[in-house]
Amino acid sequence: MTLSSVLSPERARALVRRFHSMSVLVAGDLMLDQFVIGRVTRISPEAPVPVVEHDHDEYRIGGAGNVAHNVRALGGRVDLVGLIGRDEAAGRLRGGMIASGMGVDGLVVDPARPTTTKQRIVTTRNQQVARVDFESDAEATGEIERALIEHARHALAHADVVVVSDYLKGAVTRGLVQALVEGAQARRIPVLVDPKIPHIDYYAGATVVTPNHHEAETASHMRIRNDDDARRAAKVFIERARCKGVLITRGEHGMSMVDGSGEAHYATVAREVADVTGAGDTVIATLALGLAAGAALPEAAQLANHAAGIVVGRFGAATVSPAELMAEFASSETRA
To answer: What is the mean pLDDT of residues 138-154?
Structure first.
C-alpha cells in the first residue's frame, strides 16, 4: 500500500511537541566533517585539475555525531557514545558537540587511531572538487570496546530509544550492539540501526534497520525498481538481519517500510535536491524521536520522510527544527 497520509497535521503536531522530553542514546562512528572552501579560477599547469584558492574552512559534526545533532535540533535530549583519537580533530569534535548541547562523557579516546575526519575541498558554489579521509576502520577490541559498552550501558538507563549509527569505522562491534539490544529489550525500548552490510549479522534483535536502497539490494541480492521489489527485498533483509522491521530509503522514490504489522510506501516530498549528505542521519533521528514519543512505525516513518525532504535541499549534513518539520508537513498536506 502506498500512503500519501496516515498522519494528520494535528497528530503530527502532538508527536513533535513531545520530542523535547525524549532522550535518545546514539552509539556509533563519530566523524568530523571539514570543508576547505575556495574559488576555482584556473586549471593547474601541472595536471588537468582545478586550482582552488583557499577562502575559509568550516567544520561540522558528522557520522553518529550528525544523528545526535539532528536529535538536538529537533528538540530531543541525546547521549552520544563513540570513539575519538587524541588529536586536533578530537578537540574540534568535542567543541562542536558542547556548542550543540551534547554531552561528551560518552567519548572514548583511542590514542592508537585518528579521529575520523572527512576533508572536502569545495568551491564557493558548493561544488565538491575532492575528498581526503583520515581514519582507521579497525574494530575496537579489548579495553576500548569494554569502555564503549560501559558508557553505553550507563546511558541506556535513562534512554527512551537507542540508535546505532554504523559507518564501519570501528566503534560498532558485535559486543556493543548485543549489549545495547539486550539492555533495550529489558527496558522495552526500541533499537534502530543505520546499517552497513558487512555487519548485518550484528543487528539481530533490532526493532528497525534503515538501509538505503543500494544496501537493501546488496543484502537481499535483488534489484529494487518499484514498491513490490522493495517489499520483497525488505522481507529478505529482515530474515538476514534477524530484525523486526526495515525502512528502506529510496532517494527520489521515497521510502518503503515493512514490519510484522504490514507495509507502507511513502512518496518523496523533496521539492529540490541540493545534497543528500547526511539525509539518512536525519531520517533515523526523526524516526527515533517519533517512536519514543509514542508514534506507530508508519507515523514515525512519515515524519522522517518529511524531515528528509527538507535536508536534501541544503548543502552538507543539515538539520531540521521542530517548526520547520511542522511547516513542511502542513504545506505538503495542503499541496496534496
So the answer is: 97
Q: What is the residue range of 182's domain?
A: 2-30+62-114+137-335
Residue 294: pLDDT band (50, 70, 90) is: very high
Question: For residue range 229-261, what is the model confidence (pLDDT) as tens digits?
Answer: 999 999 999 999 999 999 999 988 889 999 988
- Residue-wise pLDDT for 6-47, tens only, equals 788 889 999 999 999 999 999 999 999 999 999 998 999 999
Inside any domain, residue 191:
yes
324 in a domain, yes or no? yes
User: In one letter, which amino acid is 260?
Assistant: G
Q: Please tell me the total count of domains within the chain.
A: 1
CATH number of the domain to which 320 belongs: 3.40.1190.20
CA distances from 291 to 36, 65, 69, 161, 294 (A): 37, 20, 18, 8, 5
**Catalytic annotation present for 259:** no
- The answer to which of 74-88, 202-216, 242-256, 260-274 has the lowest mean pLDDT is 260-274
Distance of CA 272 to the CA centre of its chain: 20
Query: For residues 105 and 107, what is the distance between their CA atoms, to the nearest angstrom?
Result: 6
By DSSP bridging, strand 23-28 and strand 161-165 are parallel
Residue 336 has pLDDT above 60, yes or no: no
State what percent of residues in the chain have pLDDT above 90.
77
95-99: Cβ within 8 A, 24+ apart:
96/32, 96/59, 96/60, 96/61, 96/65, 97/61, 97/65, 97/68
In a domain, 131, yes or no: no
User: In this structure, are residues 62 and 311 in contact, taking their beta carbons and an 8 Å threshold?
Assistant: no
Q: What is the pLDDT of residue 272?
A: 63
The CA distance from 11 to 298, in Å, is 13
In a domain, 205, yes or no: yes
